[in-house]
Amino acid sequence: MSFSNIVGQDIAISILKKVLKGGRVAHAYLFAGPDGVGKSLATKAFAKALICEVQKEEDSCDSCTSCKKVDSASHPDVYWVSPSGPKGLIKIKEIKELRRRATFKPYEARHNIFVIEGADALTEEAGNSLLKVLEEPPPECILILIASNLTRVLPTILSRCQTIRFTQISPRRLKGYLIESFGLSETDAHLLTSMAGGSLGRAVRFMESGLLERRGEIVNSFLKIGSGEELADSLEETFDRFSDKEELREAIELLALLFRDMIFLKVGAEKDFLANPDMKEVLEKFSADFSTEDIAEVLQKLREFTGYMDQSVNPKLILPVLLNSINNPQGNKTYV
User: What's the 3-state SS for 215-239?
Assistant: First the structure.
């Protein structure tokens, strides 16, 4: 994995290449941006370039012993810290260990590289402990922090790092990459792109989870409903098939895209704007008796559902509330 393998982050990669070419490497970087857009991949590529044995000007050779060790997470001079535990935090003990290792000289490379994956998951104690390294870093020490949410990173840490921003990948580029690299059909790549929200990592995760294979089952189950009562029953039956939380989330997101497409159809959008363009005629027929307000209300409830799941609320507890809201979206009217 080198810089050439990272998709859709041309500006961030060009900045890192200029750093390598100029030889003026800062002691601390913060790679910031949405999940799944290549921050961790860029971190690994940058670390490899910094300690590559071939010492190419703007990238690693990607094949020397040092590069291979970074790829296999076995290089003694590259140390990763990641969130752990049920709450997904980085605690002070992990940072204390990092500080201890930072006092050592590099074993093999020119630098000691420390990566904190999830800098927005540092506890306050851990963040304050990290400041001691950022304020007085050893000369061979380079820190790379990775964060998805800058608002959760201590301002004192932000001020001591050079921030490199990573952005969502454009739909056209992401879709093209999925077709070219994985041999997906236009329809499947379009759906994954719509669900991924500019994140290649999410798109690949959806693909590897078998979402495309389950799509027909989920959609057909939903579209066979008739009355409002059957809508709730159909959704409950669909959701009950998924004991895995992530699979349930994917099913919810698929259904949310159906409702979003129905809103687009209501306002006269062209087929190209749909996440499910192959289902245009079916969705037009299905949504004929829906008002735009009712569809928007259901879409909002689905998004609230995923929001509760993000807060680790038991889906079984909130599912009845969701279904009741969908069955009577305006409180006094059957949905269909």
Answer: HHHHHHHHHCCCCHHHHHHHHHHHH
